[in-house]
């Protein structure tokens, strides 16, 4: 039985280098004991996040254990900055967690090296019949199901209405606005605002570049995943957009942009109420500011949509897990249990299970409800998601950031940056 919709049951840079050396020889799991209430089996669950996420997750684990006394879950929380390096080290040492939280290109990196279990082997333990359209496929790589989405998010434009109002600038119509409109609005906000407040900041993110490529009728990566699909000209236009934002005054200086990009959300310009617009993951809006923010579609979406519903976090099972069925049962609890959902809410993105999403929406903060409404708007557009980012692409964002910084500081032209960016990423993919 294959994973699919509408059936009763399933029917990133330093770490990348380490993975290339250590993710080999990951075979199937040996025969394992069956747990009892007196002698339960223990599985390990690794994820990244802050203390708040850890506290909530441990509460959910406690509830799962109470309902499943034959299974114990050992939770392991790590800050995102060191999560992938830690994971590579554990895999190399033969201590891979049973449940691995994943995102971005890492599912492809791990699956192609045999680290992840083909979930078809535990298909009877995980139910995706209530998942929204297209969300099951987000975890499929080369025709096999390797991950289950923990929640979905999408690229969005976060807007601070107070900054617009103070600058005397009208909010844009996100059904019609263009990238030229975005640039002009950003410059106007900066011009009409006190010193230190800006219209926007540049955005360097490979998922955003994928949106940009799709809006131009291209793909960020070719279907075989062996090279970039975005053309040199389209990539150059993206670098030019970011340079123009700074040159026209709509964005801060290159040095301030770099500083803002490394700041905690609440310490960014947007977090301090000093920025009118910010391209952002939808589930990050609540972390920027206590002020009432607004979420809009990106410019250009009405002409040719590029955004899509994406897994903000995914769950995978180690191919060496000694307890794959129990591990799958735990994942099923995380993505399908209403009690778990009322605790997690939208922390890992909006639930893919439509009943859970409907159940938690009244419990969400106003900003989170705005995110839910925004994701509903995207879902109504029925935009097909691209293939998962390929193995070798987890370093793409670092390469992209480096060349964008060089463009902003005037060290390289947008055209030369695009050419060099494509060449370096293609080498990584090869």
Architecture overview:
This protein is α+β, with helices and mostly antiparallel strands and 430 residues long. It folds into two domains: 14-150 and 311-375, D-Maltodextrin-Binding Protein, domain 2, CATH 3.40.190.10; 155-307 and 395-429, 3-Layer(aba) Sandwich (D-Maltodextrin-Binding Protein, domain 2). Helix content is 41%, strand content 12%. The chain has 16 helices and ten strands. It has helices at 14-22, 51-67, 80-92, 106-111, 161-167, 179-192, 206-215, 232-247, 254-261, 285-288, 324-336, 338-344, 354-360, 366-380, 396-408, 414-429; strands spanning 41-48, 71-78, 99-102, 140-141, 144-145, 148-153, 155-159, 277-281, 294-296, 310-317. The chain has a five-stranded mixed β-sheet with strand order 2-1-3-10-6. Strands 8-7-9 form a three-stranded antiparallel β-sheet. It has a two-stranded antiparallel ribbon with strand order 4-5. Strand 1 (41-48), helix 2 and strand 2 form a beta-alpha-beta unit. The protein is globular. The model is unreliable at 1-30 (pLDDT under 50).
